[in-house]
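User: two proteins, same treatment. go.

Assistant:
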Amino acid sequence: MARNDSRKIVNGTYGRVWVDGELWAEVDSFEAKVTINSEDVTFANDPATYQKELGWAGEGSMTIKKIHSRVQRKMAADVKQGKYPRFSIVGKVEDPGASGAERVAIHDVTISEFMLLKFELKTTGSEEIPFKFSDYEMIDMLP
C-alpha cells in the first residue's frame, strides 16, 4: 500500500515571479488560470445539453507588498495617453523538499486595473493586481 508523503506537497513560500525579466520579490500570492469558453448546444429529441468549446481566456492576479510603485510606474502615464502596456510574466514554485518545480511563462499580459493610492492605519500595505493574458507556455511541471 502506498503511503502518503506530506513532504511532496509544494510549499508556496518558494514561489517567485518575474515581470518582464525583473524579479518581484514582494509578491505574496500569484495565480494564473485558463477558462474554457463554451456554448450550450441542444439537439432535437435529445433532452441532454452538450457543450461546444469556442476558445479560452487567460486571467490571474497577484498580491504584492507595497514597497515600490512598480505597477504605477509601468501603467499610470501610458494609460492617461490611451496606451495600454503589455508584459510577460514568469511564475515559478520550486520547494526544495518537494519533487521538482512548476514554472509557467505568460505572454501578452494586460493589467486589468491598478491602484493609484491605498492605505489603512496600523496595517501593512499591499495591492492586488488583476491581469489577463492571451498566451502561455508550461516550462516545468511537477512529476
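Protein 2:
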Amino acid sequence: MVKNHLQNLLNLAQKEISKGNLPSYIPLLAQVDPQAIAIAICQINSSGQLDMTSEGAPSLTFPLMSVIKPFLLLYLLETQNINEVFGLVDRQATSATFNAIPEGKPPNPMINSGAIALSSQLPSCENLQIWLNQKSGANLHLDREMLDSVRSVANRRNLAIASQLQSLEIITNPNHALNVYEEICCLRGNVQDLVKIGTLLVNTNINTNKSPNIEIVLEIMTQCGMYGASAEFAQDIGLPSKSSVSGALLSIIPNRAAIACYSPALDAIGNSVAGIFLLKNIKSYLL
C-alpha cells in the first residue's frame, strides 16, 4: 500500500527542497516556511468509493493560485455552453510564458491570459468557491491577506494582460475579470481540500459528474498544466497535472486517484521541486 511508503518518500522529497527557491514577486509567498511539505491522496477502493491518505503537514493551508485554473474551466464547461467557453480561449499547448501578453485569443486556460478571459464569465469568486466546496466537501475560503499582497505588487503584468484582452474584444470589463481572477487564485485550503476538489476530475461512484467535460479538462492539464515544463512532464510522468507558484501541485490518475502535494520551494520554471519528486516516485505505487 502506498500509505506505508509515504513518510519515507516525504523524507526523501524534503532533501530536494534545497534545489528550489521561494518566489519573490508576491511578498507573502516569499515569507512562508520553505521546509513545509504535505501530501494527500484519494484512491478509489474496491467499492468505487474514495479513500484518503495524507502525510506531512496536511492541515497546513496555502493559496491555490494557478492550481485553481482547471476548476475554473470545469465549472464554466458545466454551467455554460462549450462553444461560449472556447470562444474566449483556445485549447492548445504553447511555448509562451504563463504570463505572456496575448496577441490574439489565449491559447489555453492554464496560462494567465486564458484564465483571466474565463474569469470574466464569473459574477464573483463566490460562485466558483461555493460550487467547489459543495461538490467536493472541501473548505476553501478567500485569503484576503494574500489577495492584498498580490495587489500590492507594482506594475502588475496581469493588468496589462486584462487590458490587452479588452483591446482584442475578448472581454469587456478588464477590472472585473482581473478582480475575479485574483480572488479565485487566493482561495485557500490544505492538501486535503485540494485533493477533494481533485476528485471532481476522477470518475467514481460518488462523483455524479461523469460528463465529457472531465476528459476535456484532463487533456488540457496534460498538455499545458506545468508551465514551460509541460511537454517534458507529460513525456516523463504522463499524468494530467497543474502546478502553482504557491507550491501546490495536483495530479490525476484518470478513474483511479487524485494526488495533491504542497511544498513551496520552486524550480526555475515555477514548479514545486519536492512535489515533482513525489509524483515521480509515488506514481508506480498507484498504477
